[in-house]
């Protein structure tokens, strides 16, 4: 199958499976989304969604957030992990939003990535999901699947992002990012993977990945 045919197969299959793509992190505006995405690093969306209501009850905007101390923020968000770094980032970026951006979340990569604890992936999620500006945030699911599908070499998330943007039409990026994540969780996880249920990898997957899967299955 030619690469362009593979791309079309992925797009068609994901559209059938996930015609609707609700944003997995609960939020009400760009600020609360930014905080939720920052908190989701090395944590699960489900866990973040149990903690953000507690934080946002006290502070759901930068002006209220800076009234809290870093330690108070840390105490609330501790269950999501990496709380020392995340609490400093939340407090610090809230100050910067007030001082430099009139309390608003900027809708551009340069200013977003200049904020404490905000990397390119977090900025990409905010750009696509808060402002509907085309971006392709690569998380572990997308990185894994792009390699399994033979659409990227898996060497780095930066390369995976470049390949995804090169292969998939720009107008699909924001929705496709979520569709691939949903598919990865449901049909092509890192652990407990059942290739028979993973229709995309089974149909267009990298030959070496499929061979390795059956080899391990045989050993078991």
TrEMBL record:
Co-factor note (free text): Binds 1 [4Fe-4S] cluster.
One GO-annotated biological process of the protein: base-excision repair, AP site formation
Any Pfam family the entry gives: HhH-GPD
InterPro entries in the cross-refs: DNA_glycosylase, HhH-GPD_domain, HhH_base_excis_C, Nth
Residue ranges constituting the HhH-GPD domain according to the UniProt record: 39-186
Catalytic reactions on record: 2'-deoxyribonucleotide-(2'-deoxyribose 5'-phosphate)-2'-deoxyribonucleotide-DNA = a 3'-end 2'-deoxyribonucleotide-(2,3-dehydro-2,3-deoxyribose 5'-phosphate)-DNA + a 5'-end 5'-phospho-2'-deoxyribonucleoside-DNA + H(+)
EC number from the UniProt entry: 4.2.99.18
Signal sequence region: none
Source organism superkingdom: Bacteria
CDD domains: ENDO3c
Family statement drawn from the similarity comment of this UniProt entry: Belongs to the Nth/MutY family.
Biological role: DNA repair enzyme that has both DNA N-glycosylase activity and AP-lyase activity. The DNA N-glycosylase activity releases various damaged pyrimidines from DNA by cleaving the N-glycosidic bond, leaving an AP (apurinic/apyrimidinic) site. The AP-lyase activity cleaves the phosphodiester bond 3' to the AP site by a beta-elimination, leaving a 3'-terminal unsaturated sugar and a product with a terminal 5'-phosphate.
Protein name: Endonuclease III
Organism: Wenyingzhuangia marina
